[in-house]
Amino acid sequence: AHQGSSGMAPDGPPGGGGRNAEHAARRVSSCAFADNVAEAAMMAYDAALARLPDHESGKDRGQTVLAAVVARDGRVTPPIVRVVSLGAGTKFLGAADIDADTQAGVRVRDCHAEVLARRGMKRFLYAQIRDAACGRERNESAEQARPGGSGRPGKDIHWNVLERSPGELSNVDTQANPDKVTSEKLGGWRCAPGVTFHLYASSAPCGNACVKRFARGGKEVFDESGTKFDVPPEAHDHGVPKFGAVRDGQLAFLWKRDPGENTENTENTKNPGENTESTTTEMENTTDGTRHLDPKITKQVVPPGCSTTGRVLTCSDKIAVWSCVGFQGSLLLARGLLVEPVFFDSIVVGRKFTAAICRRALCCRMKKFFDNKTRASTTKFTRTKHPAVLCTAKPFDKGVFQEGQGARFADGNGIVAWLENENLDFAEKLEPVGRESKTDAPALPDAFWVIDLVDGRSGKRVSGVGGDRGTTDIHGNDGNGNVSGVARTALEQAHAFATSAVFENLENENGAKENDANEKQKPEPVSYAERKAAASAVSGYAEWKREALSQPGLWTLSAPHRNARVAVGNK
Q1: Burial (CB count within 10 angstroms: exposed 0-12, middle 13-18, buried 19+), residue 59
Q2: How crowded is residue 529: how many other Cβ atoms within 10 Å of its Cβ?
Q3: DSSP code of 218?
Q4: Alpha carbon distance 36, 514 (integer Å)
C-alpha cells in the first residue's frame, strides 16, 4: 500500500464491494519513522511465516494482531532499524489452566501479541548478554549489518546492542560479603548509547487504550520535518495531562476476561480467551473488591474482552507498568546481567489509534510515578521523558470483508520469534527470507531467528524453526518439544545460561587467584520465586513495580492486583 505526502493510507478496495479489514484510509501517520518501524515489523512477520513448517506460500496474514520490538542503532550512519522480536496472537489461558501450570511453568499464559513480543525480547537480551560476556561485543560493520550488505551470518559477524558497565569488584569484597555485592560493584551490561527500542502494535492494545469515553479523537498531522530513522523530538512531550473522571474509571486497570466468566456475550464464549470486535457488553460484576457498575457505564469503560476481575492484566496496563519499570522484568536485572532497566523509546500503533487515548493508557496515567523526585535521585527506575506514542497508517491486515461481516480472531495459534546470536554455526544454515536488496530498507534479523508456533488456548508449542535440535538452551525440555522458548521454564534456562557465561568470563578476567571468591558469587540452583526475589533485592525492581501498580486511580473499577498497595474501598 502506498502513501501520499500527507502520510494518509490509500482508500478502500478498487471497484467497490465490501470494505477493507482496516479503515486505514481514515488514519494519518505521525511521521516517517512510525511507518518505517511498522514496515520493518510486517516484513519480519512475513519472513517468519514463510519459515514455519507447512506454511502455504502466498497465504495472507489472516486476522490476528502483530506486535514487534524494533531496535534503532544510531551508532552508524544512517541508523540501522532492525526487528529483534515479534509476536502475533489474541489468546490467553483461563484461571484453571494458569493454576495447573503454577509449578511447572511450561505454558505460555498470555499469547496476546504485545506479551509474546516482550517475551521474545527477553530471549534476545539474554542472548546478547551471553554473546557480550563471551567477548563477542559489537564488531559488525554497518554495511554487514544492513540488508543487502556484504555480510552474512557467520563466525566473524556479531551485532550487539550492549556495552560493558564496569564494576568495582575486588577480591576483598567478594570474600567479606559475597551476598552483598550489588550490580554496580559486580558490573554488568547496559544498552549502548545510540541504541533505542520501539514497540509496534498493529492495533491499539486491549484495555484502556480502547476506552473512548474520556477523550475526543482527532486525526494525526504528519510531521514532514523528520526522517524515517528518527523519532521527532517533540513527540515525547505529552504536555500536562488532566484527568477529570478518575472515579468513573478514566485511568482504571482492567483484567482480560477469563474464558470461563459469564457474560451477556454468549457467542464470544465459543472462542475463549480471545480479543473480539463485538460491541456487546459485560454483565455487572459483583465480586468483592470491585465497584457495582451501572451496565450503561460498564459498556463505556470496560471494552469487550475485558473484565473487572481476572488473572491476566490487559496489554494496555502491562505496557503502562513497563513504561515505569522497564520491559526486561526482574531476572534480567540480577547481578552481573543488566545494571539498569530498558524502556521503549516509542510505541507505534496502527488501527484504533487515538493520540490522547493511547497516551493516557500507555504512559500518562502513570505520571505521578514519573514525577517521583525521590525515586529519581536514588534509583535507576526513572524516566526523563515519556515514550513517543505514534500512529502508522500502514495497514497490517489487507483483507476485505463483505457487507455485514467483521473481524473474528478465531485462530488459536500465535507466533513468537526472536533474534538469537548464540549459535552461529546453526545460523549459517538459515538463509534470510524476504530480505530487501536496497541498503536503506528496514532491516530484518539476518543472523538467527527462533520461531515458535504456540497454541494460545493451551499455551503449548505446536511447531517451529530453530528449536528442534534436541537441546535445552532454546526450549524447556519436556521430552516432546511442546514447551515454547518463551515459557517460564525456558526463560529460566536462558537466565541460567547467561548468568553462567557472565561468571565464567569474570573468572577469566580476574585470574585463578580469585576463583575461590568468584565461586561464591555463582548462583545456586533455586526456585523461580527465589531467583526473582534475589534479583529484585539487588535492583529494587519489585518495590518499584509495586509502586507503579499502586498509583492513584488505577483500581477504581477492578479487584486490585495482589502486589498493589490499595485498600479495598479506598481506591
Answers
A1: exposed
A2: 8
A3: -
A4: 49
In whole angstroms, give the CA distance from residue 307 to residue 304.
Answer: 8
In what helix (H) or strand (E) does residue 87 lie, and over which residues does it extend? strand 80-88
Nearest CA to 8 among 26, 28, 34?
28
Q: How far apart are CA 532 and CA 513, in angstroms?
A: 31
DSSP string over 259-327: TTS--S-TGGGGSTT--------PPPP--TTS----HHHHHHHS-TTEESS-SSB-HHHHHHHHHHH-S
Contact 97, 441 (CB under 8 A): no
Residues constituting the chain: 571
Segment 225-273, tens digit of pLDDT? 889 999 998 999 998 888 999 999 999 999 999 987 765 433 333 333 4
Of 7, 537, 444, give the one whose Cα is nearest residue 225.
7
Return the number of other C-beta atoms located less than 10 Å from residue 164's C-beta: 14
For 278, other C-beta atoms within 10 Å of its C-beta total 14
Burial of 18 (0-12, 13-18, 19+ CB in 10 A): middle
Whether residue 560 contacts residue 571, with contact meaning beta carbons closer than 8 Å, is answered with yes
Q: Which residues pair with 415 in a beta bridge?
A: 88, 453
- The confidence band for 172, taking pLDDT boundaries of 50, 70 and 90, is very low
